[in-house]
Design goal:
The structure is a single chain. With 291 residues, the chain is α+β, with helices and mostly antiparallel strands. It has two domains: 148 residues, Alpha-Beta Barrel (N-terminal domain of MutM-like DNA repair proteins), CATH 3.20.190; 124 residues, Helicase, Ruva Protein, domain 3. The chain is 30% helix and 18% strand. It contains ten helices and ten strands. The strands form three sheets. Strands 1-6-7-5 form a four-stranded antiparallel β-sheet, covered by helices on one side. A four-stranded antiparallel β-sheet has the order 2-3-4-8, with helices on one face. Helix 1 runs parallel beside helix 10, helix 7 packs across helix 10 and helix 9 packs across helix 10. It starts with a helix and ends in a 6-residue tail after the last strand. The relative contact order is 0.15. The protein binds a DNA duplex (16 and 16 nucleotides) through helix 9.
DNA sequence: ACCGCACCCTGAGCGC
DNA sequence: TGCGCTCAGGGTGCGG
């Protein structure tokens, strides 16, 4: 799914279609795991409201609706937030696309996975939120209410310091990779960028967090920020489902050093990239370059 | 407090 | 063609 760079890319591209607009109508799918706030309640709360801002908090997006009301969005693994003018070309799989009549291959038509449709006042496209696996989330946060999900988040990965990582690691037997994936430690980091940052830092992802030195924490945090910033510059990684709001691919998948490269040669030393499960997530590393 | 694991859900790709 | 299996970028909640 979308990690920090993909969510940031989504934010930058979708903001012009949302911010300053009034929501005239909201269409949803039926109640499901996806809706933390029931869809009927959501429609009622949103219709007629003006969108004042859109911001990213870790991997979450927060819509500001005035008077302190907010809407929390999370893209989960397969969430896609995009303009209704985006073509179907990348939004659907090749097989799903082939099954459509030609006109729908050019312009995306909401399907059963399109859980939210924002019809906005004035010119400009509608905005759709589609999510096949429904691991995404949408929740209304009324003015003055706190939110557990947001409250649990630690420092945004782009802002974090080596000292924060080092002190979080203290006494922890879990893998350093698990620490990076922990959103209360570094908000926004996910599986791809955790693997990439640890490779660039030369640290084995399975090493116990408490065995990672202060100096190594410096390197990890430096490389992590570098990788995240570079990925934002290229529009994120499009590996399976992620597409930018205009339906285009990101570019960072072409710059990956280890993620998804199991069995291929390490670009530094030529040894085979290994894959194993760490923290229940598929993890890629070079046993020669990472200690 | 910490840790590992089951679970939420759908679809693609692969071997047979 | 079809079946069964594995895999997927995330996060929560439980029991030990």
């Amino acid at each position: 799914m979308p990690e920090l760079p993909e969510v940031e890319t989504t934010l930058r591209q979708i903001a012009p279609f949302l911010v300053g607009k009034r929501i005239e109508r909201v269409t949803t799918t039926a109640p499901s795991y996806f809706f933390i706030t029931p869809p009927a309640e959501l429609r009622k709360s949103l219709e007629g409201r003006q969108i004042e801002f859109l911001e990213r908090v870790g991997k979450y997006l927060v819509l500001g609706l005035g008077e302190g009301d907010r809407l929390l969005l999370h893209l989960g693994m397969t969430g896609q937030l995009f303009s209704s003018e985006a073509a179907s070309v990348r939004l659907l799989s090749a097989t799903a696309r082939a099954a459509l009549p030609p006109e729908e291959q050019i312009h995306f038509k909401p399907d059963r996975h399109t859980h939210l449709q924002f019809e906005l006042a004035g010119e400009g496209p509608q905005v759709y939120f589609r999510d096949v696996r429904k691991f995404g989330k949408v929740q209304w946060i009324a003015a003055g209410e706190s939110n557990d999900r947001l409250d649990r988040l630690g420092t945004d990965a782009l802002e974090m310091s080596a000292e924060e990582l080092f002190s979080a690691n203290r006494g922890r037997r879990v893998a350093i990779k698990a620490m990076l994936l922990d959103q209360s430690v570094a908000a926004g980091v996910g599986n791809i960028y955790a693997d990439e940052a640890l490779f660039l830092a030369g640290v084995r992802p399975g090493r116990a967090a408490k065995r990672v030195t202060r100096v190594e924490c410096e390197t990890i945090v430096t490389q992590l920020k570098r990788v995240l910033k570079r990925s934002i510059e290229t529009g994120g990684s499009s590996i399976s489902d992620y597409v930018a709001p205009d339906g285009s691919d990101g570019g960072y998948q072409d710059e990956r050093k280890v993620y998804g490269r199991k069995g291929e040669a390490c670009l530094v030393c030529g040894n085979e990239i290994k894959r194993k499960l760490i923290a229940q997530r598929s993890t890629h590393y070079c046993a020669h370059c990472q200690r």
